[in-house]
Amino acid sequence: MGEENNPDNAMESVEEKVVNIYSEIMSKYKRKPIRNVNKMMEILKTEYKLLVDKKLVTLVVAAFLAGRPVLFEGPPGTGKTEIGEAILTLWAGKPALVIPCSENYDEYRVIGDFHPLMAFKYGFNEKSFIPRPLLAALILDAGVLVDEIRRSNEEFQNMLLDIIDKRRIIVPELRKIFYAKGEGFQVIFTSNPEDYAQSELSDAFLRRVVRIPFNYPPPEVEIEIIRLRYDVDVELEPKILEGMVQVVNLLRQKAAYKPGPADTVLWSRIAGRLASLRGKQQVTVSEVVDAATIVLYKRVGEEEIVDEALEKVFGLHP
Ligand SMILES: Nc1ncnc2c1ncn2[C@@H]1O[C@H](COP(=O)(O)OP(=O)(O)OP(=O)(O)O)[C@@H](O)[C@H]1O
Ligand SMILES: [Mg+2]
Question: Deepest of 29, 80, 103, 301, by most Cβ within 10 A of its Cβ?
């Protein structure tokens, strides 16, 4: 094999590597950036099946225009991750990259690291460098969803903020600085302060992000969310739907495991499928209650609280 045809000798730049690695993901989404609030809301609803408050979308757009990252903070299952990813994707006109945080995450996991054997053979250079999602997003001008930021350590959080502020990433081993090329590179953090094993966010962190609180939706909105997501060809009567939302709201007050809209949506979809499997045209209380036992029984010892709520609202328990 000729020297230049040997893949071992091919020198691919970090930029080329990123484009190659992500080309498949990027090619699946072909749309120009959308930065108009009404248009974003419309696409979020019709294509992403996400019902998002207009104020929320407007606040995110304002933060991006001001060059600040956003922090979505609130209880589980309220749509923080999905809404964040969808907004970033629409804004950049490219799929957002997701970084799920964990305690031991460091710059090597999100910026890039060196393949040990390649580095041994070729040294610490672009050839042995493996780009990771944060650097890839900066190069591709895509958005980044940093999921569950409270699971990471303070050093990691400061490192991210420094990159977001300066819109550049330095890789000292390569003696190289990578710069953001456009406005598509934006960051949304998510966090659930009530979850256990969460670290505090420092004042320095909070000062540099725009915090948008999430909460459980009012009943009429939650009903609309369920309708939007319900995908079974079996009728789900408004009365039953209202009852389900009442049950989850009771559990949010009384139980340690508080179901989010994500649970309510799943509950309705399973009840619908149970009814379909039983050959019914309509979801009845019996399917709702049976589905509750697999969707709402989460913590051992809390089954009774769920049963009580079902009994109170539907007059029936498992
Ligand atoms: N506003 C909404 N519109 C449509 N679906 C929603 C909405 N809010 C929640 N959902 C439901 O919840 C799911 C998304 O939950 P997601 O995982 O994004 O929540 P989260 O707030 O990130 O939760 P966690 O804190 O557990 O990570 C959707 O798949 C849908 O079933
Ligand atoms: Mg989430």
Answer: 80
The residue contributing the CA closest to ligand 1 atom 7 is: 79
The whole-angstrom separation of Cα 3 and Cα 21 is 24
Q: 10 Å Cβ neighbour count for 313?
A: 20
- DSSP assignment string, 240-252: HHHHHHHHHHHHH
Q: In angstroms, what is the span from residue 258 Cα to ligand 1's centroid?
A: 14
206, 242: one domain:
no
Same domain, 205 and 240: no
Atom 24 of ligand 1, nearest CA residue? 76
- Please, are residues 147 and 190 in contact by the beta-carbon 8 Å criterion? yes
Please tell me the total count of domains within the chain: 2
Over 50: is that where the pLDDT of 18 sits? Answer: yes
Q: Which domain holds residue 155?
A: 3-213
pTM: 0.94
Please give the Cα distance from 271 to 288 (Å, whole number).
Answer: 5
> Among candidates 40, 28, 25, 30, which has minimal Cα distance to 137?
25
Closest listed residue to residue 64, CA positions, set 149, 180, 154: 180
Cβ neighbors of 8 (< 8 A, separation 6 or more) are: none
Structure confidence by residue, pLDDT tens digits, 165-213? 999 999 999 999 999 999 999 999 999 987 765 677 888 889 999 999 9
pLDDT, residue 34, reads 97
Give yes or no: residues 198 and 68 share one domain: yes
Q: Is 192 in the pocket of ligand 1 (CB under 6 A)?
A: yes
Please check whether residues 115 and 19 belong to one and the same domain.
yes
Please work out whether the CB of residue 113 comes within 6 Å of at least one atom of ligand 1: no
Pocket test for ligand 1, best of 42, 49, 52, 78 (most atoms within 8 A of CB): 78
Do 97 and 232 lie in one domain? The reply is no
**Residue 236 belongs to a domain with what CATH number?**
1.10.8.80
Q: Which of 213, 236, 267 is the last residue of a domain?
A: 213
Report how far residue 92's alpha carbon sits from residue 185's, in angstroms, rounded to the nearest whole number. 7
